Amino acid sequence: MLTAGELAGLVVAIFWVILVCFMVVVLVRLARLLTETRKSVAELSDRIAPLLDDMSQTVSEANRRLVAAEEITDNMRDVSGNMVKLTGVASTLFAGPVLKISAFRDGVRLALARRAARGAPARRVARGGPRTGPRTGDRISERHAAERAVERRAIGRGRG
User: Fold this and answer.
1) 84 alpha-carbon distance from chain centroid
2) Contacts of 133 (CB under 8 A, 6+ apart)
3) Is 82's pLDDT higher than 80?
4) Whose CA is closest to 13, among 25, 24, 21?
5) Which residues pair with 125 in a beta bridge?
6) CA-to-CA distance for 91 and 61, rounded, in angstroms?
7) How far is it, in rounded angstroms, from Cα 138 to Cα 115?
8) Gap between the Cα atoms of 13 and 8, Å rounded
9) H/E/C letters for each residue in the chain?
10) Which pLDDT value is given to residue 126?
11) Are 91 and 133 in contact (CB under 8 A)?
12) Tell me: the pLDDT tens digits for 94-131?
């Protein structure tokens, strides 16, 4: 039979064998994991190099196109500035005389309307010769007189 010391030594030896077997299994699995990791890193580095080259080309192409777009926007800014200057010059050259002509025309119309309102006949020459005035009872002349009255009221209010 075994003594207590021998039994304790036997139990400790069994535990050491179990522990060593467990550690061997763990180390074998860890070795496989490291081998697979090394293969994956090698594959990834093989795939990343061309990807980085493509990305570098894409970035340089994008930069080239941005430079071209910047040139286009600068040209458009110059063109729009020139158009502003051109419209200012055109406005100065054409708007002033057009406004003066319009004001002169309105002044003449107002003067003729006031002259007609005072009773002084305005000089008008129709195709058939000078107009002598409306005939009484003539529907066209009455309608014309009504339209003229509306026009005189509008001119008097400053809408003519």
Assistant:
1) 20
2) 121
3) yes
4) 21
5) 130
6) 44
7) 24
8) 9
9) CCCHHHHHHHHHHHHHHHHHHHHHHHHHHHHHHHHHHHHHHHHHHHHHHHHHHHHHHHHHHHHHHHHHHHHHHHHHHHHHHHHHHHHHHHHHHHHHHHHHHHHHHHHHHHHHHHHHHHCCCCCCEECCEECCCCCCCCHHHHHHHHHHHHHHHHHHCCCC
10) 47
11) no
12) 878 888 888 899 999 999 988 888 875 555 544 444 45
Pull the structure tokens for residue 135. 């005939």
Q: Name the token pair of 41.
A: 């890193």
Beta partners for residue 126, in sequence order: 129
Question: What is the maximum alpha-carbon separation in the chain?
Answer: 161
Q: Could you give phi then psi for residue 125, rounded to 5 degrees?
A: -125, 115
Residue whose token pair is 């209010």: 157
Q: Which tokens belong to 159?
A: 């809408």
**Tokens at 4, concatenated:** 């207590």
pTM of the model: 0.38
Integer Cα distance of 154 and 157 in angstroms: 5
Please name the residue that has the structure tokens 């050259």. Answer: 93
A 10 A CB-CB count for 113 gives 19
